[in-house]
Amino acid sequence: MFSIPTFIDSFGPLAWAARYTLLVSGLGIALGLVIGALVCAAALSPSKALRRMAAIWVSFLRGVPLLVQLLLMYYLLPVVGINVPAVAAAVISVGICASAYISEIWRGAISALPRGQSEAAVAIGMSARTIWGRIILPQAVVMSLPALINELILLVKASSLVSVVGILEITRASQAQAATTFRPLEVYLAAACIYLAINLCLAGIGRWLEHRTAV
Question: Which of 8, 47, 1 is nearest to 193 (CA)?
């Protein structure tokens, strides 16, 4: 029989563990934005070598599961003499993985912009930096906003994988709680509610940003 007290009591420990879920997801998406911008710039570069490197980067990271990337990062860094906490390894792995998807999101948004805008800007004497800073990038960011919010939501859900390296996030905490109470249904349902609440908040923020940036 479903135990309501166990279900309610599970929210305390799981909500406390959610700080690691938010930490890994938030820092991971921030790192992914930075690396993704660089990869996007390489993909749009006139240099064939840079475009090829960007294509290899995206193909590898999208072709290898995040779990495998996480394990490789966690065990590879100590081999090369770099000892970092599990949380740092998780953030780096999540950020690098996210960069592949973010770079493609931005590349698609920039490529979708009408070429006539850039050509008109060049015709009136605007510099390349001004064109990118005042015409291309602002529009690309607005166009890519829904996809970026969706990627952040996916990262929050994918952050459950970092439990394999010992990080006490929501999923690992729910496993420990279920083993202690012997009531897995109630505990995992509480974990699902916390994940849902986080992602609903992110979706709401995304809709608000879309409304504020709508033209």
Answer: 8
Structure tokens at 165: 């390296």
- What DSSP string runs through the chain? ---HHHHHHTHHHHHHHHHHHHHHHHHHHHHHHHHHHHHHHHHTSS-HHHHHHHHHHHHHHHHS-HHHHHHHHHHHHHHTT----HHHHHHHHHHHHHHHHHHHHHHHHHHHS-HHHHHHHHHTT--HHHHIIIIIHHHHHHHHHHHHHHHHHHHHHHGGGGGGGT---HHHHHHHHHHHHS-HHHHHHHHHHHHHHHHHHHHHHHHHHHHHH--
CA angle 139, 104, 162 (to 5 degrees): 120
pLDDT digits (tens, 9 = 90+) for 90-145: 999 999 999 999 999 999 988 888 877 777 777 787 877 787 778 888 888 888 88
166: tokens are 């010992």
Does the reported pTM lie above 0.85?
yes
Residue 168 phi, psi (nearest 5): -85, 70
